[in-house]
Design brief:
single chain; 231 residues; mainly beta; Jelly Rolls; 8-stranded antiparallel beta sheet; 7-stranded antiparallel beta sheet; 15 strands; 4% helix; globular
Length: 231
């Protein structure tokens, strides 16, 4: 089993407008900081369908082996929260390359457009079946490949006791997700079943209307295999 050393390479409290200056919004959203945390709300009515959804990207590229942590505060449901990671153009372009088609928050441009990414959806309270049976899903795109799934331990908003510490670990083809250190799912990307394993890229928060949620204490660690560790 491989052992990895962690090195903090990015930290952002997400506590005010200055903290999100190096972020880029795709779609329309209301971003505020009433509790010294990033609050994200839809700016368009949910009646607009996919046009009401949005993604807030960190403009920094992160290495292939990373651990990403953040605090999550769900405030109003229904809706859905995701994290995109390892996002880049399908031809190796930077995610924000002018060679790529514009993206405005509609999901098709992320799952079936000209980018590759993984994404974990970890607070799925949108459609009725999502509210009736709570799961966290890992998908790989290009495409709509559901590659891992686990039970979601977060209750309905009225019973929540946030913050919930979210942790996504990606190293040596393995992806694992934890909530408050509880293992949710584990996936080994063999690079064959759903195309090559994805490497370095950008990460971003996505919300589907009408979810309201807050985010804080974003940290990213680079993971380096310790010499002598075994598979």
């Amino acid at each position: 089993m491989k052992v990895f050393e962690k090195k903090l390479i990015y930290a952002n409290p997400l506590s005010n407008e200055r903290d999100i200056a190096p972020f880029r919004l795709e779609g329309q959203a209301s971003l505020s900081f009433p509790n010294a945390r990033l609050r994200m709300e839809n700016a368009l009515s949910p009646e607009n369908g996919q046009r009401a959804n949005y993604v807030l990207w960190c403009e920094r590229d992160f290495p292939p082996s990373v651990e990403i942590e953040w605090d999550f505060y769900p405030l109003a449901e229904p809706g859905l929260a995701m994290l995109f990671f390892s996002a880049a153009g399908r031809g190796g372009e930077d995610l924000f390359s002018p060679l790529l088609a514009p993206r405005r928050g509609e999901y098709d441009s992320y799952k079936a457009g000209d980018i590759n990414a993984y994404h974990v959806s970890y607070f799925r309270r949108g459609q009725r079946e999502e509210r009736a049976f709570h799961t966290c899903n890992l998908r790989k795109s290009h495409g709509f490949h559901l590659v891992a799934q686990g039970a979601d331990p977060i209750p309905e908003v009225r019973d929540c006791t946030p913050p919930y510490r979210m942790r996504l670990r990606k190293a040596a083809g393995e992806i694992a997700f934890f909530i408050n250190d509880l293992p949710i799912f584990h996936f080994l990307d063999d690079g064959l079943a759903y195309g090559k394993a994805l490497g370095a890229g950008k990460a971003g928060f996505r919300q589907m209307a009408p979810l309201t949620a807050e985010y804080a204490n974003l940290k990213v660690y680079a993971l380096t295999a310790v010499n002598g560790s075994r598979n």
